[in-house]
């Protein structure tokens, strides 16, 4: 892939996109390059590198808001937040381990892909913390939407539309986010030797309590519940949950081991050293055990449950040729979807990377792309052939 431009300002991004549009040159938008293997491969594209559009432009800890340019590294943002004992509550996944990439994750990539982690099922996804965006559409126009305050309701909310569009509607140049205080204490209850079905039962029971469980995952036969808050709150919640599940004798994990555990769950480190194809399947938590059993009846797949069982990470041997049809065929119709996160180039060319949409939804999506990018130069084919 040849380089088209490496702008360092929003105006330079606009100029580059205008030039590409005039030349009908298709662009692949990159910054940190950590998620390059996600999406359908494209070959007749040139690289638009926005990693130089970087820097935190405004951070107001008292207002719980932060603005940053799209190429700003997540590490830089987290360092600024750490200094004020705050955090990105949607817990964005770092794809480097599982994708085998280097580079540096950026806030623009997180927003473009709506990257979220284990807290999503309680706290919300990246798009739920997004207050405003600036982006350049496929004609080079600079578009601003939203603001930097939490009660901004002016005009059509394009922030939710752009978030998760994988750069197919515009090139993000700046984002404004809501941040939250970092909890004083965090701990995990671990339940050993439980099945997927037993784990989902634990999750359903735990999240229906008033004890604010904000992490619920299962891997390698162990179910995990995370609680956070003030020190006294966590002590009370742990005690109350242990009493609720006293027959299961859960153990408590805290400190560095606890943090490493949830980082590993967030980043799916259990599959990082494999060569398997990796799928992310979203469905009703109570449907997850039957879905996993049905998949494993067809081929030797490994699974990790996250977000209370609403997300199933599947590792399938790459040699299984019909895995896309099997996995998607077993997802309950209209009640879930399966996304190919890591797979060979041949597989990503042969099957849709994203779950096929209903024809009416596909028509709406195509219409939106036609409005924002009439010539189809921004990440063409990445989300659909």
What would your notes on this structure say?
The chain is an alpha+beta fold and 385 residues long. It folds into three domains: 1-182, Uridine Diphospho-n-acetylenolpyruvylglucosamine Reductase, domain 3, CATH 3.30.465.10; 185-266, ACT domain (Alpha-Beta Plaits, 2-Layer Sandwich), CATH 3.30.70.260; 269-359, 2-Layer Sandwich (Alpha-Beta Plaits). Helices cover 31% and strands 25% of the residues. The longest helix is centred in the first third of the chain and has 14 residues, at 10-23.
How much helicity do the residues have?
25-40%
CATH class category name of the largest domain: Alpha Beta
Largest sheet: 5 strands, antiparallel
Strand content: 15-25%
- Structurally, how many domains make up the residues? 3
Tally of strands: 18
Overall mean pLDDT score?
95
CATH structural fold name of the largest domain: Uridine Diphospho-n-acetylenolpyruvylglucosamine Reductase, domain 3
CATH architecture verdict of the largest domain: 2-Layer Sandwich
**What structural category arises from helix and sheet content?**
alpha+beta
Radius of gyration: 21 Å
Low-confidence spans: pLDDT under 50, at least 5 residues? none
The dominant shape is globular
- In the sheet with the most strands, the strands line up as 4-5-9-7-8
- How far apart are the termini? 19 Å
Can you count the helices?
13
In short:
The protein is α+β, with helices and mostly antiparallel strands and 385 residues long. The chain has helices at 10-23, 74-83, 96-99, 107-112, 120-123, 159-162, 196-207, 231-244, 255-266, 288-298, 323-330, 345-350, 359-372, and strands at 2-5, 27-30, 46-49, 56-60, 65-69, 86-87, 130-136, 142-146, 171-178, 180-181, 185-191, 213-219, 222-229, 251-253, 277-283, 302-306, 311-316, 336-342. It has three domains: 1-182, Uridine Diphospho-n-acetylenolpyruvylglucosamine Reductase, domain 3; 185-266, Alpha-Beta Plaits (2-Layer Sandwich); 269-359, Alpha-Beta Plaits (2-Layer Sandwich), CATH 3.30.70.
């Amino acid at each position: 892939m040849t380089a088209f431009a490496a702008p360092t300002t929003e105006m330079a991004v606009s100029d580059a996109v205008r030039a590409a549009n005039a030349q009908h040159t298709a662009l692949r938008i990159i910054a940190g390059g950590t998620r390059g293997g996600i999406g359908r491969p494209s070959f007749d594209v040139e690289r638009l590198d926005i990693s130089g559009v970087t820097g935190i432009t405004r951070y107001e800890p008292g207002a719980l808001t932060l603005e940053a340019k799209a190429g700003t590294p997540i590490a830089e943002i987290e360092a600024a937040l750490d200094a004020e004992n705050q955090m990105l509550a949607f817990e964005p996944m770092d794809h480097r381990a599982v994708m085998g990439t280097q580079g540096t994750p950026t806030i623009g990539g997180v927003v473009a892909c709506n990257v979220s982690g284990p807290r999503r099922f309680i706290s919300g996804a990246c798009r739920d913390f997004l207050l405003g965006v600036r982006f350049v559409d496929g004609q080079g126009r600079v578009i601003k939407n939203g603001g930097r305050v939490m009660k901004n309701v002016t005009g059509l909310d394009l922030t939710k539309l752009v978030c998760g569009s994988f750069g197919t509607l515009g090139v993000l140049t700046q984002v404004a986010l809501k941040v939250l205080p970092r909890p004083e204490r965090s701990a995990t209850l671990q339940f050993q030797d439980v099945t997927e079905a037993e784990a989902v039962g634990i999750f359903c029971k735990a999240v229906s309590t008033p004890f604010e469980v904000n992490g619920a995952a299962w891997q390698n036969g162990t179910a995990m519940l995370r609680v956070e808050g003030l020190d006294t709150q966590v002590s009370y919640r742990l005690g109350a949950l242990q009493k609720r599940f006293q027959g299961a004798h859960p153990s408590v994990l805290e400190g560095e081991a606890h943090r490493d555990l949830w980082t590993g769950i967030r980043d799916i480190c259990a599959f990082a050293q494999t060569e398997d194809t990796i799928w992310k399947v979203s469905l009703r938590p109570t449907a997850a055990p039957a879905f996993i059993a049905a998949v494993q009846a067809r081929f030797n797949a490994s699974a990790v449950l996250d977000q209370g069982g609403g997300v199933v990470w599947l590792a399938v041997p790459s040699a299984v040729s019909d895995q896309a049809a099997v996995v998607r065929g077993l997802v309950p119709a209209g009640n879930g979807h399966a996304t190919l996160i890591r797979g060979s180039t041949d597989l990503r060319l042969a099957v849709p990377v994203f779950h096929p949409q209903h024809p009416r939804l596909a028509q709406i999506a195509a219409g939106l792309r036609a409005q924002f990018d009439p010539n189809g130069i921004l990440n063409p084919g990445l989300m659909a052939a």
